[in-house]
């Protein structure tokens, strides 16, 4: 069945991008991707406004624009502390990125998370009509599907996780792990970016909870519910990004960057300032290159763009301090009168400017320690000049690596591997750069954000509806 006039898409995620076309560089890749999917499909995008209110009223702010409507609500200070800064970003985010050392387990956070998901359910329920298809995004909202079911919502509801799913034994340390995972059985379809994340989920469901997994592994039964699980890697809006890369702003930025590079090769990294992105390890890998190849060092420099993120959370304040110290030390030790090895920039840029920066750079350095997908890797590829493309160096531990095998793949924990990969990329002949880029670009074009949206919603629509099952 295809979407007809009767079936609207209701997307629900914590962060909602404005309906009127902002291309701010501060947005995560997920918000940008959902914006493209909704522009194509039409419907409602519901979530937190990012704003605060004294008393939660559930009053929805509706805004029409660019092919879809946004519907947002304000939250109370305690909600923001316990739900967003607390359970989402101090408990689940570090745990899901394998950082048990940073994960904080507090009952207050778990309670706030549950309360806010109930508030979201109360608020969005009246907006959902009988034939709508509901698609919930990411770790902030795992229990929302169950809360909607409790409020009589029999629509098809899907859930997509944009982070990794952690190995079973890590997840088992979360005090309410089983209850949380149980809520996922309220959905009809669960989507993950890679087979690795999906397998970890199935492991937990089977071994910790006794769920029953069908032989081909894509249908799981638990507590009288049947859920379909799929691998469905998100892409970028490739056509849009190529157009951005061809825009006047991008071309102007590209020329400006080339001028300021004065013939040196630019290596670029663009990441939210997050400990999962491996920024410390990246700078140390770059320093290793400077030490191991003194003859080459003045031939290049690293531009690291890292807009601050989740600044109320202590681990984010610490990583920011660490990186300031580290970039300062490396520059102090290695810089010369006419050369500074690292340009470290703590602000976001519009996407057309970034496209120009990517195009001007010889190497894209994308080395997260763990990442659900990583769309910067895909945007880097989409921005390149086909006749003279740059080289993508990509962490093996990013979800994107499963699709982007023609990148120079590295273990981001190894300074030596990062250093070797920089040398390989610098010396790579143009023919090889073109061949690798072509193969990468084919994938980025084929499995773009429209493909992702369609693959997931097709699965969701094909799932038997609750009305048929019950
Ligand atoms: C990641 C998450 C998204 C989130 C984004 C930006 O990509 O998977 O859900 O929106 O980071 O983080 P923030 O906390 O600023 O929304």
From TrEMBL:
SUPFAM superfamilies linked to this entry: UDP-Glycosyltransferase/glycogen phosphorylase (SSF53756)
GO MF, one annotated term: alpha,alpha-trehalose-phosphate synthase (UDP-forming) activity
Pfam families: Glyco_transf_20
Classification via InterPro entries: Glyco_trans_20 (IPR001830)
GO aspect biological process, one term: trehalose biosynthetic process
Coiled-coil positions: none
TM annotation in the entry: none
Family: Belongs to the glycosyltransferase 20 family.
Protein name: Trehalose-6-phosphate synthase
Organism ancestry: Bacteria, Pseudomonadati, Pseudomonadota, Alphaproteobacteria, Sphingomonadales
């Amino acid at each position: 069945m295809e979407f007809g006039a009767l079936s609207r898409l209701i997307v629900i995620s914590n962060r909602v991008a404005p309906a009127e076309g902002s291309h701010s560089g501060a947005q995560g890749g997920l918000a940008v991707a959902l914006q493209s999917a909704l522009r194509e499909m039409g419907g409602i995008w519901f979530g937190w406004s990012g704003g605060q209110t004294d008393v939660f009223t559930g009053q929805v702010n509706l805004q029409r624009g660019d092919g879809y409507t946004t519907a947002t609500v304000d939250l109370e200070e305690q909600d923001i502390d316990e739900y967003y800064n607390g359970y989402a970003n101090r408990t689940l985010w570090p745990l899901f990125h394998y950082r048990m050392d940073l994960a904080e387990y507090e009952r207050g956070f778990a309670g706030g998370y549950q309360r806010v998901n109930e508030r979201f359910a109360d608020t969005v329920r009246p907006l959902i009509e009988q034939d709508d298809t509901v698609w919930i995004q990411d770790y902030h909202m795992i229990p929302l599907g169950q809360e909607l079911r409790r409020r009589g919502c029999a629509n098809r509801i899907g859930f997509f996780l944009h982070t990794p799913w952690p190995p079973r034994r890590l997840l088992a340390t979360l005090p309410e792990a089983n209850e949380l995972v149980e809520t996922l059985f309220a959905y009809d379809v669960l989507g993950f970016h890679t087979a690795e994340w999906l397998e970890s989920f199935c492991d937990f469901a089977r071994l910790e909870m006794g769920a029953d997994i069908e032989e081909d592994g894509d249908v799981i039964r638990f507590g009288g519910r049947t859920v379909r699980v799929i691998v469905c890697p998100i892409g970028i809006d490739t056509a849009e990004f190529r157009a951005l890369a061809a825009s006047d702003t991008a071309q102007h930025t590209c020329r400006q960057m080339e001028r300021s590079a004065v013939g040196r090769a630019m290596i670029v990294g663009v990441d939210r300032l997050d400990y999962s992105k491996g920024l410390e390890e990246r700078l140390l890998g770059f320093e290793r290159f400077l030490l191991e190849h003194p003859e080459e060092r003045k031939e290049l420099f690293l531009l690291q763009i890292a807009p601050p993120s989740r600044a109320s959370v202590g681990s984010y304040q610490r990583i920011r301090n660490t990186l300031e110290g580290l970039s300062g030390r490396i520059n102090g030790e290695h810089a010369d009168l006419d050369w500074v090895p690292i340009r470290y920039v703590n602000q976001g840029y519009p996407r057309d400017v970034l496209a120009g920066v990517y195009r001007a750079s010889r190497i894209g350095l994308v080395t997260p320690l763990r990442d659900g997908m990583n769309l910067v890797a895909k945007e880097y590829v989409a921005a390149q000049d086909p006749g003279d493309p740059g080289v993508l160096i990509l962490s093996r531990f990013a979800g994107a690596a499963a699709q982007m095998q023609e990148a120079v793949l590295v273990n981001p924990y190894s300074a030596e591997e990062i250093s070797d990969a920089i040398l390989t990329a610098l010396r790579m002949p143009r023919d090889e750069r073109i061949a690798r880029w072509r193969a990468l670009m084919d994938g980025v074009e084929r499995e773009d954000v429209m493909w992702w949206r369609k693959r997931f919603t097709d699965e969701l629509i094909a799932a038997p509806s609750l009305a048929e099952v019950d």
